[in-house]
């Protein structure tokens, strides 16, 4: 009888010991997990992950917009508590906001102007310029245009120079139609406008005034697509997206393609495009830092999907290192 009782006591003791072990294992707060740090200690997983929240605001170039927007969509899918806003007010419009501290990031299709840098300094805004892609400004015509496939820089200058006397296509080449050229181009706040006018006319902002201008490249696409005798220009991505509605011209025999843009052969209209980052926000707001780092680390994969030419992974790292 005593032997049976002892066996029962031992069994009861083992059950109690197992219950204590299970209870101790459940001692962390509900909803939290622990993870091994690799040095024999464990830490709270939620604290280690540090979920991001807050907002990131970018504005500026319509040329850079497709890249920043594509990055923003992918970033927000992974960080749903961060709200990323991307505006399209043109490079100049974006710079006005950036240099007064209204935005974290400015999309730009040209270098910051001296007066913009002075405004930033006046307002205590420190920044860094990061190259994010290569673009080739595309000169486009209506797909029904069957008289021109190739145009020279000299002819573009003749068409677009200030006080140009070109009214008809035949004013450029006598064998072209005696029909009025309808011109479409970016507005004066656009970095593409500045770059094109300097490359073609020798001075940024120097251009004839009788053309339809818009900061929205989609308006320019629609204008050229809807008029057989139209000509316009804008970033390569907008041509790529609308190839069924437009025809891109060769410039002095060189076609705008990713290969020719990347090699620099598509001259003088191949160019780098940028984002400007407010370094104070980058250094002090984790969501801004995470977004910029995501932008540069994923540039090699995402930029080509937007129609632009990506830099090498090494080049993106070099650009990001400017902030460090």
TrEMBL record:
Record keyword Transmembrane helix present: no
Signal peptide segment: 1-24
Highest taxon, organism lineage: Bacteria
Biased composition (Acidic residues): 29-41
MF terms (GO), sorted A to Z: phosphate ion binding
Region of interest called Disordered, as start-end residue ranges on this chain: 27-60
GO cellular component entries: plasma membrane
InterPro entries for this protein: PBP_domain, Phos-bd, Phosphate_ABC_transporter
Keywords: Cell membrane, Lipoprotein, Membrane, Palmitate, Phosphate transport, Signal, Transport
Keyword Lipoprotein appears in the UniProt entry: yes
Residue stretches spanning the membrane: none
A GO BP annotation: phosphate ion transport
Xref: Gene3D superfamilies: Periplasmic binding protein-like II
Domain (PBP): residue spans on this chain: 49-296
Coiled-coil zones: none
Membrane disposition: Lipid-anchor
Localization per Swiss-Prot or TrEMBL: Cell membrane
Cited function: Part of the ABC transporter complex PstSACB involved in phosphate import. Involved in the system for phosphate transport across the cytoplasmic membrane.
Family membership noted in the UniProt record: Belongs to the PstS family.
Description of how the protein assembles with itself and partners: The complex is composed of two ATP-binding proteins (PstB), two transmembrane proteins (PstC and PstA) and a solute-binding protein (PstS).
Alphabetical list of NCBIfam families matching this protein: ptsS_2
Protein name as it appears in the record: Phosphate-binding protein
Species: Anaeromonas frigoriresistens
Lineage of producing organism: Bacteria, Bacillati, Bacillota, Tissierellia, Tissierellales
């Amino acid at each position: 009888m005593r032997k049976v009782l002892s066996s029962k006591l031992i069994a009861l003791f083992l059950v109690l010991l197992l219950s204590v072990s299970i209870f101790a294992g459940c001692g962390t707060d509900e909803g939290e997990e622990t993870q091994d740090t690799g040095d024999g200690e464990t830490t709270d997983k939620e604290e280690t992950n540090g979920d991001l929240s807050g907002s990131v605001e970018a504005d500026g170039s319509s040329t850079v917009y497709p890249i920043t927007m594509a990055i923003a969509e992918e970033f927000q899918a992974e960080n749903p508590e961060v709200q990323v806003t991307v505006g399209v007010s043109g490079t100049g419009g974006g710079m006005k906001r950036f240099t007064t501290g209204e935005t974290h990031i400015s999309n730009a299709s040209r270098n910051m102007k001296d007066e913009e840098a002075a405004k930033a300094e006046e307002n205590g805004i420190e920044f860094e310029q990061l190259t994010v892609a290569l673009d080739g400004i595309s000169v486009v015509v209506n797909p029904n245009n069957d008289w021109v496939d190739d145009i020279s820089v000299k002819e573009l200058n003749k068409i677009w120079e200030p006080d140009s006397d070109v009214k008809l296509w035949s004013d450029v080449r006598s064998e072209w139609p005696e029909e009025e050229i309808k011109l479409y181009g970016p507005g004066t706040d656009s970095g593409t406008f500045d770059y094109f006018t300097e490359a073609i006319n020798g001075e940024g902002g120097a251009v004839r005034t009788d053309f339809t201008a818009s900061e929205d490249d989609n308006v320019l696409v629609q204008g050229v697509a809807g008029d057989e005798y139209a000509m316009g220009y804008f970033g390569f991505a907008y041509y790529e997206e609308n190839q069924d509605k437009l025809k891109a011209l060769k410039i002095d025999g060189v076609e705008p393609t990713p290969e020719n843009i990347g090699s620099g052969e598509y001259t003088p209209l191949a160019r780098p495009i940028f984002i400007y980052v407010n370094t104070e926000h980058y250094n002090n707001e984790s969501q801004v830092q995470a977004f910029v780092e995501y932008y540069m680390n994923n540039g090699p994969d995402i930029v080509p999907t937007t129609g632009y030419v990506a830099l090498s992974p090494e080049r993106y790292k070099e650009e990001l290192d400017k902030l460090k």
